[in-house]
């Protein structure tokens, strides 16, 4: 896979420097085909390589329990930047920068940016190095660009699936956002977090497109879920079991609020939240998801019952209005 930088040399040096004996390799879905090649590189250092075949969608899910189970003394986590404050097993993050050219896709975005002068730029960890060239190109085209820089995210302009505080920090100053990267996932996150027009420059498909219409449709679905959840008497409060998704205190607060409204709350601990696993609780009429908010956000129609983010639940319970939640964002704290 020539499209990404796996930093093989740095990895070997770090493994040797640390003198570790067992290394657990963790890759997100799209990068898993590289696992066997990386295992060979690890074993050249004399360490034993173990490949995690479990799903991994974010750096919230560093496989510390699995590593402890296997007596691994190092985890190498690919494809994300550090997200959790502390890992109980030492962890090296390989951000896996994309080696793909983004210029053509950005050029294709230009007609869609017509009429907007101030552009908020955003990207995922894979394309951060493309931001400087993008800024230069857009400046030559008469546009002003801005990068948001909220303090707790690693890099200016970076977005994470559940944290758009960088783009939100400049929402009052820009007319539109341009997201550089593949697919619709992050662009939707930006549009739903800021209520601003959002354009994608996708270097993988070499095309540019707007996600604003999709975001509007999704918002309507979310409103319908909130309305449905208002009538629920038995509500499941989901606690995520992945390292960076466990928000026990939030779940307890939600439970308390549900009970304050005279309803019944059940705490449900899940590692992988899927539509199927929630079918096992037929008496529960709605869920509040304190784990990965993107499970609630991206495909509400996939679930048989409403599965609200905590912010949406605050609307359903009458604690805040829909409008003020939209200002805060559907899912951000
Ligand atoms: S909680 Fe969800 S969106 Fe956030 S990093 Fe984890 S998988 Fe990604």
Provide a compact summary of the structure:
With 333 residues, the protein is α/β, with parallel strands linked by helices. The chain has helices at 8-18, 35-43, 64-69, 103-109, 131-140, 165-168, 185-194, 212-230, 248-260, 275-278, 293-298, 310-316, 322-328, and strands spanning 22-26, 48-51, 74-78, 91-94, 118-123, 144-147, 176-180, 198-202, 207-210, 234-240, 264-270, 286-289, 307-309.
CATH architecture tag of the largest domain: 3-Layer(aba) Sandwich
Instruction: Calculate the mean pLDDT score and round it.
Output: 95
Portion of residues in helices?
A: 25-40%
Q: Could you say how many structural domains there are in total?
A: 3
Q: What overall geometry do the principal axes of the alpha carbons give?
A: flat
- Give the distinct bound molecules: iron/sulfur cluster
Q: What are the segments in which pLDDT stays under 50 over at least 5 consecutive residues?
A: none
Task: Give, in spatial order, the strands making up the sheet with the most strands.
Answer: 6-5-7-8-9
| The named CATH superfamily of the largest domain | Diphthamide synthesis DPH1/DPH2 domain 3
CATH topology of the largest domain: Rossmann fold
Computed over alpha carbons, the radius of gyration is 21 Å
* H/E topology pattern: HEHEHEEHEHEHEHEEHEHEHEHEHH
What CATH first level of the largest domain would be assigned?
Alpha Beta
The CA-CA distance between the termini, in Å, is: 37 Å
């Amino acid at each position: 896979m020539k499209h990404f930088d796996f930093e093989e040399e740095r990895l070997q040096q770090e493994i040797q420097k640390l003198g570790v004996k067992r290394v657990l390799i963790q890759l997100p879905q799209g990068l898993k085909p590289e696992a066997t090649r990386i295992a060979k590189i690890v074993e050249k250092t004399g360490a034993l390589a173990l490949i995690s075949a479990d799903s991994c969608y974010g750096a919230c899910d560093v496989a510390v329990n699995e590593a402890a189970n296997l007596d691994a003394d190092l985890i190498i986590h690919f494809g994300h930047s550090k997200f959790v404050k502390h890992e109980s097993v030492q962890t090296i993050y390989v951000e896996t920068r994309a080696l793909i050219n983004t210029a053509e896709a950005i050029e294709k975005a230009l007609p869609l940016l017509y009429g907007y002068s101030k552009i908020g730029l955003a990207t995922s960890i894979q394309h951060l190095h493309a931001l400087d060239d993008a800024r230069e190109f857009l400046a030559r085209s008469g546009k002003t660009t801005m990068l948001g820089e909220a303090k707790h995210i690693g890099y200016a302009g970076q977005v994470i699936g559940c944290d758009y505080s960088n783009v939100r920090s400049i929402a009052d100053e820009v007319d539109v956002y341009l997201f550089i990267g593949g697919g619709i996932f992050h662009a939707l996150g930006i549009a739903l977090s800021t209520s601003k027009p959002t354009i994608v420059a996708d270097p993988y498909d070499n095309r540019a497109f707007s996600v604003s219409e999709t975001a509007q449709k999704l918002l309507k679905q979310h409103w319908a879920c909130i309305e449905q959840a208002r009538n629920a008497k038995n509500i499941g409060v989901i606690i995520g079991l992945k390292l960076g998704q466990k928000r026990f205190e939030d779940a307890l607060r939600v439970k308390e609020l549900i009970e304050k409204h005279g309803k019944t709350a059940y705490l449900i601990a899940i590692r992988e939240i899927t539509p199927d696993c929630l079918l096992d609780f037929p008496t529960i009429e709605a869920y509040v998801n304190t784990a990965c908010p993107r499970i609630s956000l991206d495909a509400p129609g996939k679930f048989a019952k409403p599965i609200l983010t905590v912010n949406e639940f605050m609307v359903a319970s009458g604690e805040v209005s829909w409008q003020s939640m939209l200002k805060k964002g559907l899912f951000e704290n």
